[in-house]
Amino acid sequence: MPTSSAAEITYNRQQQMAIEHPAAPLMIIAGPGTGKTATIVGRAVHLIRDGRHTPDQILALTFTEKAAGELKQRIGRLLGNPAAGATLNATTFHAFCYQTVLEFRPEYRSRRLMSRGDAWFIMREQFGGLDMLRSEVFRRDPSKAIDSFTRFFSGLRDELIAVDDFPRLLEQSRIALAANDTEDWEESFRQLEDHCRVFPLFQQWKAAEGLIDYGDMIESCWQLITDDPQVLRKLQGRYRTIIVDEFQDNNHALNLLVDLLSGSRRSVTVVGDEDQCIYSFRGASHHNFDDFRDRYGANANYREIVLDQNYRSTQPILDLAENAISLNTGRTGKQLRSVSGTGTRPELVIGSREQQLNWLVERLGDVQKRRLPLGDNAILVRTHRQAETVVTALERHGIPTQYLKVDFFRVPAIRSMLSWCAAVAGGAGAGIGLYRLLSQAGQGPGQREYGWALDELDPGSEQSPNTMPLARISPNVQRLVTAIQQLREQAAERSAAELVRAILIATRMYGPHLRSGFHGDRVAVANLNYFTQLAEGFSFQHSENSLERFVRYMAVLREARTVEGVPPHTAPRADAVVVHNIHQAKGLEFPHVYIPLLQSGVFPVNYRRPAAMDTPPRHWRSWQPLKEISAKEAYYEEEVRIFFVGLTRTEQTLTLLAPAKRQSPLIKNISKELYEVTKVLQTTETEMQDTHQELLVELRADLSRELLAGRFEQARSIVDAMSQVTEHGKGLTPDWDTLPLGRRLRDRLEGTPPIQMPRDQVLHLSAGGIDTYESCPLMYRFSKIDRIPGLTENRPALALGKAVHEVLEMYHQPGGARRSVTELLEERWRPGEFTYPQEADQHYKDAMAMLTTYAGVHPADGPPVAAVEYRFQFPLGDTIITGRIDRIDIDSDGRIRLVDYKTGKTPQTPSAARRDMQLGLYSLYVEQAAEVELAGHRLGRLPDEVTYYYLRSDEPEVTISYQPGELLGHQDRITAVVEGIRRGDFPAATSDAPCRYCDYRELVCPKWEDEG
Predict the structure, then answer these.
(1) Is the per-residue pLDDT at 733 higher than 80?
(2) Which of 136, 167, 335, 815 has the highest count of CB atoms within 10 angstroms of its CB?
(3) d(CA 199, CA 220)
(4) How far is the first Cα of the chain from the last one, in angstroms, to the nearest whole number?
(5) Which burial class, exposed, middle or buried, applies to 488 when counting CB atoms under 10 A from its CB (0-12, 13-18, 19+)?
(6) Which residues contact 516 (CB under 8 A, 6 or more apart)?
C-alpha cells in the first residue's frame, strides 16, 4: 500500500472501515495480499489514539511469536513511540494461556513444558502397563497406538472436551457407529474407549514427571477462568479489546476463551481467511468464521468486512486462484481485485517429471546468465521430499538454492553422536554404532577388528563375528575401544547430558568442523548444539536420565518425526532460488513463483483413511459445520486451500508444471481460459557421468553455497578442490593432504579396496540373501559380509511367523501324533519375544485365529504330506544354494506340490509369485534333485504346483506352475547376484522401499546421510 510518510499509511475504503469500527465485534475476512496486518495495526493504533484504550489494554493473539513481535514494532512505529508498542499484550494463544495460569496458579511454575516427542516417549515407557486396551489395532501395533493417542489427546484439549463428558459421548458414539453398521464399527468403538481410558493416565504420567504440554496450557487456562469468577473479572477488566490474527489457523478452544474474556463489551476483532486454512492437523478450522457469526452476529454493532483489494499479485493470477478454490464449500465468496492491474497470464508447462525439472533448470539457468536476481524466484511444492528433488536438480547444474530444511537424523555429526551414545550405553544399536565409529577410525569394514572390538566391549557375546590377537589390532581401534570402555565406567554415575558432553570432549568432535567452516561443517555445529540441548532438556525433565534411557528417547523422537534440524544462518534475501513446501511459504511473497509436479496422487496427496481413530468424532465437538461433508471431502478441500496459498504467493508471474497424463485435478478444475499452455516435447538426455564428473557437480553446488554465505575462504578451497579433481581425471596424482577437502575427495575417487570374494571360496546363498542383494546390495554387505549385529529389539511379525510355522510343521508331521493347533500353539508360543504384553497377547490371538481357520479347512491327515520344513542345498555353478520348504505334498500319482505359508495380510498376484525368487529356488531344487526320494517317489522334475498360502486371507492360495525352461531367468538373476558379490559391488538401494525396516539405515547407511 502507498505510504504517505514514515508514520502514516494511506488505507483503502474497506481497511478504513475496519480500522474505525467501534470497540465491538468485527470480523475482517482478508484475502491474500490485502494488507491484513496493516489493517489490524491501524485498528490498534486507532483504538489507542481515540483515548479509550492504552496499549496494555489490547490483547493481540497471533499464530507465532515472530508475528507478535512484528505487531508490537509496527504499532510502536505508527504511534511514534516504540515503548508504547512494547506494552501491547501481543502473544501466541498457547503462550497467553500459559502465562495466565502461571500468574494465578504459581504452583505451575514447577511444571516443565514438554513436546509431542516427549509425549511419545512417556507413552512408550508406560505402554507395557496398558493391559486394559481393547482395540486389536492398538494392541497389535504400539507405534500406531501412540501416534493416535497423541493426536487424539491434542484434539480433546483443542475442543475443551472434559473427562466427565466421556461416558455420555461414548454412548452417543456407540449408537452412531452401530447404526452405520460398517464392518469394523466395533473396532472403531474400542479405539474410542481406549482413548478415554488412557487419557487420564497420560495426565497422571505427566504430573508425576512434573511436565505440562501445550494442550494442558489451554485446558488449565479454561478451568482457571471458568472455576474462579474473580480471575475472570480481573482479566476482563485488564483487556478491553481482543484482536485475533490468522483466525483460520486457531481452534475452537480459542473461540470459547475469547468469548469469555470479552465479557459484556464484546470488543473482539478477528482477521483471517477461510481460503488459507491449511493447518487442520494442528486443530485449525475454517469453521471458526461460522462460529464467530453465531456468537456475535446478534450484537447491534457487529460488522463483517471483506478485504479484497490485493496489493501483491496481478489480476490474471488472482482470477486463476479464485477459480481454483471456487468449488470449496463453507467459504465467504470474494473477488480479489488487483492494484497492480493486468499482467501476463499464468503459464502451464506440460511434461514428464524429468522434463519439468529440466525446464526449471533451463529457465532459472537463463535467469542466472542474464544476471537477474535469483532470489526473486521461488519454487513451491507440496512435500519436503519433492523440495529435495528440486534442490538436487538445480544444484547439480550450479544453480544455488535456499532450502532451509535440515533432516536432523541424517546429519553425519548427529549420526556419529548417536553411534557414540549407543556404543557407550550398550543395548540395541550398539553394534551398528560401533561399526560406524570403526569406519571413521579409518578401518573400513575391518571384519576381524570389528569382531575383536565387539568381543572386548561385550565379552562372550554370540554376536562377535571373530577375534584376533591384540598385536594385530590397529592403534586406532584400540584407542576407540578404550575410550568407549572409559565412558562406560562413568555411565552409572552421570546423567545423559553429562555423558554427551564427555563424549564431545573425548572425541573433539567440534574441532574439525570449526576449523573447516564449510556449509556441512556449519550444519554440523548448529545441530551438535541442538543435540546437546536435547540431552540437557532430557536430563532436566526426567528423574531417570541415564544415557541408556536417552538413547531410547532419541529413537522415539526419530520414530515420532517431531525433531527438525537446525539450518545454518543464511542471508535473509540471498541471491539464490527459494525452494519451499507451501506450508513454509505461507505469509511470504515472491516476484516469480513456480509450482511443479502437479500430478494426481502427488498434489493433491492421495487421501488415506486413518489406520486408527486419531481425532475426536465430529459429534463430540460443540460446534457443527453448516454443511456436513465426509472426511475425504474435507481432506481434498484442504488440499485445494494449500494450492490456493501457493498460487497467491506470487507478485508478477506464475508457472504451473504438470504431466500430460495423470494430471492433478487441481489443474483440471481450472478454466483453460485462465492460463497459457506450453507443451514440452522433449527433454535433454542425461548423460552418464563418471565419478569425477559427479564430484565436480557436487563441488559446484558447494561453491554456490559458500559464495551465498559470503564464505570466500571456503569458496577458494572448493575451487582448488575442483582443480585437483580435474587433475585426477587426467591421470595425475594430486597431493590430497594439502587440501581441506582432501580426505573426502580421495575417499570418493580412490576409495577403499572393494571386498572381493576369492573364486575358490564357496558362497552360500538363500532366497532371502538373493532378495536382499537384489533390493539393496549394501544391506547384504552389512548383514552377510560385515556381519554387523542388527537391532536386538523384538520384531513381532517375525515372532508370529516363526510360531505359526512351527505349529504347522508339527501339525502336518508325516507319521506324527495328530494334535490340535491350539495345543501346539500353546507349546510353541514365546511371549518373551515381544516388547509389550499387549503385543504378545494380540499376536497370540491372531495366530490362533489363523491356525484354527486353517485347521478347519485342512485336517492334519488331509493333504498327502511327504515332508515339512524340508531343508535342502544344491550347487549352482560355484555357489551353494540353500533353503527350507515349508511343505512338500506328493499324491499317489506322484504329483508334486510345494507349499509356503505366509502370515502377511496382502497376497501376491500370480504374476508376482511367478517372479518370486523363493518359489523359483524351491522349484530349481526339486527339478535337479533326481536322486532324492520322498513318499516313494523320486524328485528330479519341475513341481506340478507351487503355492503361497496366505493364512490371513479369505482366498489364501496363490498357485502357479512353471513351464520347462522358465526358471532360466531365475538362474540368470542368481548368476548376476553371485557376480556382484564376488566383485565387491555393494551400492545402496536405488528406491526407498527396502529401507523401511532396515537396521542399518539410521547410523551407517550413506544413502540416509546428508553431507550438507
Answers:
(1) no
(2) 136
(3) 15
(4) 40
(5) middle
(6) 714, 740
Q: How far is CA 838 from CA 110, 146, 436, 846, in A?
A: 34, 13, 35, 12
Cell of 546: 541415564
Q: Which residues contact 644 (CB under 8 A, 6 or more apart)?
A: 32, 275, 276, 321, 324, 325
Place of cell 527459494: 578
CA-closest candidate to residue 412, choices 968, 1009, 950? 1009
Contact 780, 989 (CB under 8 A): no
Residue 185 predicted with pLDDT over 60? yes
Taking the C-alpha atoms of residue 706 and residue 919, their distance in angstroms, rounded to an integer, is 54
| Sign of the alpha-carbon dihedral angle for 685, 691, 693, 696 | positive
> What is the Cα–Cα distance from 917 to 911, expressed in whole angstroms?
12
**Helix-strand-coil split of the chain, %, nearest 5:** 55, 10, 35
pLDDT digits (tens, 9 = 90+) for 84-117: 888 889 999 989 999 999 999 888 888 888 888 8
Mean pLDDT over each residue of the chain, to the nearest integer: 87
Torsion from C-alpha of 636, 638, 640, 642, nearest 10 degrees: -140
Classify residue 138 by its DSSP letter: H
Picking from 602-606, 641-645, 885-889, 998-1002, which range would have the lowest pLDDT averaged per residue? 998-1002
Cα–Cα dist 560/893, whole Å = 57
Q: Interhelix angle for 185-209 vs 166-180, to 10°? A: 160
CB 438 within 8 A of CB 453: yes
Band the pLDDT of 685: cuts 50, 70, 90: very low
Sign of CA dihedral 254, 256, 261, 266: positive
Contact by Cβ (8 Å): 545, 538: yes
Q: What is the 3-state secondary structure (H, E, C) of 866-916?
A: EEEEEEEEEEECCEEEEEEEEEEEECCCCCEEEEEEECCCCCCCHHHHHHC
Spatial separation of the C-alpha atoms in residues 38 and 412, rounded to whole Å: 44
Report pLDDT for 201.
96
Confidence of residue 994 (pLDDT cuts 50, 70, 90): confident
Q: Residue 877 above 70 pLDDT?
A: yes
Each residue's pLDDT tens digit, 927-936: 999 999 998 9
Sheet harboring 377-381: ordered strands across? 401-402, 577-581, 377-381, 590-595, 650-658, 347-350, 676-679
pLDDT band (50, 70, 90) for residue 2: very low
CA dist., res. 240 & res. 59, Å (int): 8
C-alpha 484/C-alpha 547 separation (Å) is 13
Nearest to 649 by CA among 931, 410, 377: 377
| Digit-coded pLDDT (tens) for 634-647 | 889 999 999 999 99
- Is residue 545 classed as helix, strand or coil in its secondary structure? coil
How many Cα atoms within 13 Å fall on the side-chain side of residue 291?
25
Identify the three-state secondary structure at position 898.
Answer: strand
Q: What is the pLDDT of residues 326-350, one digit of tens each?
A: 988 878 888 899 998 888 999 999 9
Per-residue pLDDT at 853: 95
User: Which grid coordinates are listed for 785?
Assistant: 559380509
DSSP state at residue 572: T
Confidence band for 534, pLDDT divided at 50, 70 and 90: very high
Residue labelled with grid coordinates 492460463: 675
Angle at CA 95, nearest 5°, toward 90 and 99?
Answer: 95
Left if phi > 0, otherwise alpha if psi is -120 to 50, otherwise beta: which for 312? alpha
Please, what is the angle between helix 631-647 and helix 315-325, to 10°? 180
395, 401 contact by CB (below 8 A): yes
Predicted confidence at residue 5, as pLDDT, reads: 36
pLDDT of residue 476: 82
Which pLDDT does position 817 carry in this prediction? 67
450 phi and psi angles, rounded to 5 deg: -65, -45
**Do 202 and 122 contact (CB within 8 A), yes or no?**
yes
